[in-house]
């Protein structure tokens, strides 16, 4: 057991932004809201999974919608609280602890201001180990947990209770409501006992995010240090020369094109995304695909770059990280693999797509 203060929040935000593979919300917004709450109410207790009583009642508040919209329509703690209270009132319960639904610059932090205000702990686990765009894309769903009922609220005070027959149906309803709410909203789901979180969640995501943040803030050469920590692969070093994105159906969809730098000088690359980065091609060859993580980092500082922040001319390194093993099962690939997102290809692990990398990595330039 330990406590999370302002300094730890900053590190978690950076690390979770990297793990968010381009999605999961803007880290600046989540950081400011969390820091303000901690300064007002005090540090938040963080529990490792081994410290959690199986009978604790837990839930996950988060944000839903298009990341580009949330940059302009900034969420607040009140709407996050309302979303949680909707399902608590419906079930006539009050939760004992919170956990993030995914790793992402904002969504990893959503539980902290609510926990600070209520004086309850946050659990070091999540439902993805990265970020995904749809409600059913969590490891809980792989074990048959549907996450319903679900509360949803916006900043104007509009609220809705969703009690879909499944997480897939809940996703359809929630996406429609979110679009009506203006493209972004607060939501809460997965009220359950902690034993189910222990069984089905991705463990230690917040601690890992903090370790990543520490490297980003202190290491002289953060990218090679991150590659080592995450067992990751350098996929490309290049400059963005085109970005195409559009907001539709509650998502941001598009692609990023890059020209190579340094040892990749004569090469090109393309990255496709739906809120999160999904497919990465180098010279027309796919070398990383969902559910493995495709992360864009500033080439000089190593800082993660989200899909809504990618722009023409920035110099980046793209790395690929093996996903949590929970996703590498047939149902996991069915739910979040490339074919689900409309790509005509079978999933191949990033380590198998990058067995023979002929480039000598040079971080001196």
From TrEMBL:
S-Me-THD N-terminal domain sequence ranges? 8-163
Origin superkingdom: Bacteria
**Which Pfam families does this one have?**
S-Me-THD_C, S-Me-THD_N
Query: What positions does the domain S-Me-THD-like C-terminal occupy?
Result: 170-350
What protein is this chain from? DUF917 domain-containing protein
| Species annotation | Fundicoccus culcitae
